[in-house]
Design brief:
Length: 370
């Protein structure tokens, strides 16, 4: 665990040996792959069940009566705070190993508020995973704040820490996940009433599947989720601009967050999608300008409009095909305008993406007016 060179292939591992043989057959060389551990942080964690008894014996604090045991979790935590290297060695670790673990810490027990904040976190794997599960059935899922708090309280009663959250969420939604995919319900709001009585609320939803109030509440929660995601992205605008080379305008941030919420995708994958369309648009500009005497470019708003158009029709439309088809008449049209006005550079706004033919016609009409 100190800085050293570690072999990536073990001589005792048959799979490693097979890989080495295949590599030798391909390259004719037997390369020994290694990794340096200098910049690797090793973290070892676990429950260490029974360690508190060893500490208790060392401190000579045995309870009254023969065979007294440490029982409450709070008492266990207090003993664990006083752990020393000798306790870990007695527990079963080699002294050489313990000497290389310089920092020892004890985790606090998670309380209801801690569990609630885990669920409230925009990156909560438990909530996002469940939203993706329902999205696979074509159902968008939102959670009310009060419902998350009740789920956290139920999980806390299990005394299994964060592990209890997944089962607490599952107990509420399992029946809904079985029944709703066979209906035409596409939006579901998890309320406090649903956490308290899942079966009863399911019956109410099935009796009135398109309740306007429930739909309005769903839209409110969607908007709240988008706003909660926009804040952190705005804070990192400069960092993202340096990393991706993109301008993160308020409109673009809104576009990205809406995509994340509606499609249940992560931020990096959505930015990658925007980047792909952005580079396609810039490549089209270069090709168009190199073929003609006039220069064509797209405004940032136009590229956002293109992104939105591609996302709306992603099953049957891609950016490259759209640009080639939509702007095929621009070579002749812009040359005509250039001859009449002398203008050589044209920046296409969002209107030019929304309706390319009409925008070109308007440019030509304006050139004749001049």
């Amino acid at each position: 665990m100190e800085e050293t060179e570690v072999e990536l292939r073990s001589p005792q591992d048959p799979l490693s040996q097979m890989e080495a043989m295949m590599e030798f057959q391909k390259t004719g060389k037997r390369e020994r792959k290694k990794i340096n551990t200098k910049h690797i942080l090793f973290i070892m964690s676990g429950a260490f069940n029974g360690l508190e008894e060893i500490i208790k014996k060392r401190l000579n604090r045995q309870g009254i009566g023969f065979g007294a045991e440490v029982k409450s979790k709070d008492e266990k935590t207090e003993y664990l705070r006083m752990v020393k290297a000798e306790d870990l060695i007695q527990y079963g670790f080699e002294s050489e190993f313990i000497g290389r673990l310089p920092v020892i810490t004890v985790f606090e027990n998670l309380e209801v508020e801690d569990l609630y904040h885990i669920l409230r976190n925009p990156k909560s794997p438990i909530i996002n995973s469940k939203k993706k599960d329902f999205k696979a059935y074509g159902i968008d899922l939102q959670f009310e704040d009060e419902a998350l708090r009740l789920i956290a309280e139920n999980a806390f009663k299990e005394r299994t820490g964060a592990r209890g959250l997944a089962s607490a969420v599952e107990r509420v939604l399992l029946r809904f996940e079985h029944v709703l995919p066979s209906t035409d319900i596409r939006h579901l709001v998890v309320t406090a009433s649903m956490v308290k009585d899942p079966e009863g609320e399911l019956e109410k939803i099935l009796q009135n599947p398109h309740d306007p109030q429930r739909e309005a509440r769903f839209r409110e929660l969607m908007a709240e989720e988008e706003r909660s995601l926009e804040g952190p992205i705005r804070e990192k605008c400069v960092e993202f601009h340096e990393r991706y080379g993109l301008t993160f305008s308020p409109q673009r941030i809104s576009l990205i967050t809406r995509r994340i919420v509606e499609e249940r995708k992560d931020l990096d994958s959505v930015i990658d999608e925007v980047l792909a369309i952005y580079h396609t648009a810039r490549s089209f500009e270069q090709e168009f300008s190199s073929r003609n005497e006039v220069k064509l470019s797209f405004s940032e708003e136009a590229i956002d409009c293109l992104v939105e158009k591609v996302w709306k029709e992603e099953d049957k439309l891609n950016a490259e095909d759209f640009l080639k088809q939509a702007f095929q008449n621009y070579e002749h049209g812009l040359k005509l305008i250039n001859k009449r006005t002398g203008i050589r550079e044209f920046i296409i706004p969002a209107a030019g993406i929304q309706d390319p033919e009409n925008y070109l016609s308007e440019l030509i009409r304006e050139s004749y007016k001049d």
